[in-house]
Write a structure and sequence with these properties.
- With 414 residues, the protein is α/β, with parallel strands linked by helices.
- The protein folds into four domains: 170 residues, MoaB/Mog-like domain (Molybdenum Cofactor Biosythetic Enzyme, Chain A, 3-Layer(aba) Sandwich), CATH 3.40.980; 49 residues, Molybdopterin biosynthesis moea protein, domain 2 (Alpha-Beta Complex); 89 residues, Molybdopterin biosynthesis moea protein, domain 3 (Molybdopterin biosynthesis moeA protein, domain 3, Beta Complex), CATH 2.170.190; 73 residues, Beta-clip, CATH 2.40.340.
- 20% of the residues lie in helices and 31% in strands.
- The protein contains eight helices and 28 strands.
- Strand 20 and strand 21 form a beta hairpin.
- The protein is elongated.
């Protein structure tokens, strides 16, 4: 077991958790209407051409392109119209030199045709003759068979998160059931004698539970299946019973509170009772959020989050979210989250604890052509500092602060 507040870096914390989990991610098949944001479990290849036939992208006339070469308003060319292809019909016709077929947008191209004249560049002279005033190039105004996606071509890679446009492509190739990783099951507890449910009126000394709701919402946004398990009092038997009911059935168990000096002994005692040597770390080089506990018991990842709302949310975004990403079939790389940034100019000097990655809540606004980041100062126990903020500014471990007018990267809070 690591000593209390023997701080480890964020990426080391994440890697330590994944190393000790060592479990295979389960798969399932879902209908594409339920697949948004799900993680693909296997490479998906198309078993058909898309489109399945060459078709027009314009209303007009299917032609042999060289028949139109040299056509202009002053020197039009005349073509024989030998039929019509409507949208949704099979094209049984074929055309020869000097001939054309009327065709609708989406209509199947007749045999020998290699271009489509726009109707605006023609004039109908009779039922079987048109005048052409504009030349068309070969392959113009046509989508060819397999041009969008060829049979056997890779469409979506394993580990890919499904987007709305991907669902459309899957529908286009007739694939309505796809293999995805199962969602991570997360249980969330708040611990503390002072906590009450939000519906109740607090007496002096009591506070409403904030963390269960904010952490559960963040977990749901990470596509996890979340069970809000309520409040557990600072009592060994109560906490032991609560954890025993969830261990082995949930991938991740989050305990909000119970990781700081005042209650850590109770949490550690309970975890050690459940499984000797299960505590892998207690203390992470992050501010706010230093007193975070890491334990793995029976393939359940148990993390003790700080009780202060801002601390628990910062830890969730920078530690829990990458872990949920990895357990969902994606990489746990922090770059994925750090890339969700905008450049801004710092509005004032800030001082940081150089021994930890420190996250400052900021409000970013646009002034002229640049963004200005205004730090929102306040203790980690204040939830409204995050409500007012629309971004997080990371001051990396080793720096004692940042200066006014520095160009900084801001992680956007959605």
């Amino acid at each position: 077991m690591s000593n209390f507040f023997e701080l480890i870096k964020i990426d080391d914390f994440i890697n330590l958790a994944l190393k000790h989990l060592n479990q295979k991610i389960s798969e399932e098949s879902v209908h594409i209407t339920e697949s948004l944001d799900r993680i693909i479990a296997k490479d998906i290849y198309s078993d058909v051409d898309l489109p399945g036939f060459s078709r027009s992208v314009m209303d007009g006339y299917a032609v042999i392109a060289k028949d139109t070469y040299g056509a202009s308003a002053n020197l039009p060319i005349f073509l024989e119209c030998v039929g019509e292809i409507k949208m949704g019909e099979k094209a049984n016709q074929s055309i020869s030199l000097g001939q054309c077929v009327k065709i609708a947008t989406g209509g199947m191209l007749p045999k020998n045709a290699n271009a489509v004249l726009m109707v605006e560049d023609t004039e109908k002279l009779s039922n079987n003759e048109i005048e052409v005033s504009q030349a068309v190039a070969e392959k113009e105004n046509i989508v060819f068979k397999g041009e969008d996606l060829e049979k056997g071509e890779l469409l979506l890679k394993k580990g890919y998160s499904v987007r709305p446009q991907d669902i459309g492509a899957l529908a286009g190739i007739g694939m309505t059931e796809i293999p995805v990783y199962k969602k991570v099951k997360v249980a969330v507890f708040s611990t503390g004698d002072e906590l009450i449910d939000p519906e109740r009126e607090p007496a002096l000394g009591e506070i409403r539970d904030i963390n269960s709701y904010s952490i559960s919402a963040f977990a749901k946004k990470s596509q996890a299946l979340v069970d809000m398990c309520g409040i557990v009092k600072d009592d060994k038997e109560a906490l032991l019973k609560a954890l025993q009911s969830k261990i082995g059935s949930y991938d991740v168990i989050l305990l909000s509170g119970g990781s700081s000096v005042g209650t850590r002994d109770l949490t550690i005692d309970v975890l050690e009772t459940l499984e000797k040597g299960s505590i892998l770390a207690h203390g992470i080089a992050i501010k706010p959020g230093k007193p975070t506990i890491l334990s793995v018991i029976q393939k359940s990842l148990i993390i003790g989050l700080p009780g202060h709302p801002a601390s628990s949310i910062v830890v969730f975004r920078n530690v829990i979210q990458p872990l949920l990403r990895a357990l969902s079939g994606k990489k746990a790389d922090l770059d994925y989250f750090q890339n969700k940034t905008i450049k801004a100019k710092l509005s004032r000097n800030i001082v940081s604890d150089k021994g930890r990655d420190e996250y400052f809540r900021v409000y970013v606004k646009k002034e002229g052509k640049e963004f200005i980041a205004n730090p929102i100062l306040g203790k980690s126990s204040l939830i409204t500092t995050l409500v007012k903020a629309n971004g997080l500014l990371k001051c990396p471990l080793g720096l004692e602060g940042m200066s006014k007018n520095d160009s900084v990267d801001i992680e956007v809070l959605s």
